[in-house]
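Could you help me review a protein record that somebody else here produced? This is what I was given.
***
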Amino acid sequence: MDQAVKGAAALQSKDFSAAATHYTEAIAINSQAIDYYIKRSTAYTRISPPDPAASLRDAEVALTLASKRGKRELIIQAQLRRAIALFSLEQYGDAKACFDWVKEMNKDEKSLQIWGMKVENKLKGITEDDPKAKITIQRYPDVEVPKQKDEEKPTSVQPSEPIKSAPNGSTQAPKAEGVQTPANKIRHEWYQTDDTVVVSLFAKGVPKDKTTIDIQNTSLAISFPLPTGSDYDFSLDPLYGRIDAPASSSKVLSTKVELVLKKATAGEKWSSLESDAPAAAEDKGTNDDGASEVNRTILTDHSTNTGPSYPTSSKSGPKNWDKVANDLTKKSKKEKEDGEEGGDDGLEEEFEGADPVNGFFQQLYSRADPDTRRAMMKSYQESNGTALSTNWSEVGKGKVETQPPDGMEAKPW
């Protein structure tokens, strides 16, 4: 079992000593995973006896990593852990400053009310010139972030080794090792099926033995060293929807790193890879030491498992194309079973077993007249895939504008 999973289980069962041990081992494998530091900081605070100094170190490392990556939810969690650790160290002025920064970013953080009263009571009992009341910290700490792994020193070529020559007599330069794609050229793409989400990170020469891939139920992280001596980090936290981490897989190829993520809910449509909503409490842990545990509400509801509703000019409102495709597929199969003729049997066999929506539109296009095909191609391409029309007399009048689904915003690439 993954050490991070063991750590989460130990934290949930209140075995804080074991949780700290498991997260220490997880960090040794992936020292860039922000959530590991936050969880270990929590364990250090609750362990018996508590170790607030160690908790503070982990919270500040997590805060530094989260701020560099712009992870708002993780910044809030790390700052809160930092505040609690400072309170335990009796640095009440610093703790209050951290709680105030958390409140600026999330005024609805439920543990703030309890901790706010605690720190205010402590400050009332001391004078303003007391060292415990002073603010000695900055919003974002200046701490050294651990590197992923120490890169192996390159071995020098011995003088006795001859340089190989190419067949034409010219000298052949040694083949470059390590990542050959510049960091600013590394890109990622993704697509989904009913059961999986496939993420590809395109980078040539990623070293398999030095690459760390961490797949969790609500997040993923990839890290590997660059020839410059720094590390390339790619993370998605939280993911748009939950996945089944044990059933997911990854592989490092010569031109890319590919991850196949198994959806926890088959058929759920993802409109993006990453969600703006915080992950559920069972994955993020708890933040309110000394207070009753509070269930977090997931801001985005994915329980309906329906695709986005695209804009339409139809007077009857938007169509559920998934339902239309499934109904047509069932009808086609029933006609086959009843022995009815008609339609292009070859086409139906070709599309059978594929995604119902894609199969439906492929059949629609293959059987359409030239004007209908032109309308479909033009509307789909000019709208960046957000609109599809079969009416050439309307589409032919001008450019088809991008029409994102309700609640989403179109952004230029």
Observations:
- The chain has a mean pLDDT of 77.
- The chain has 13 helices and seven strands.
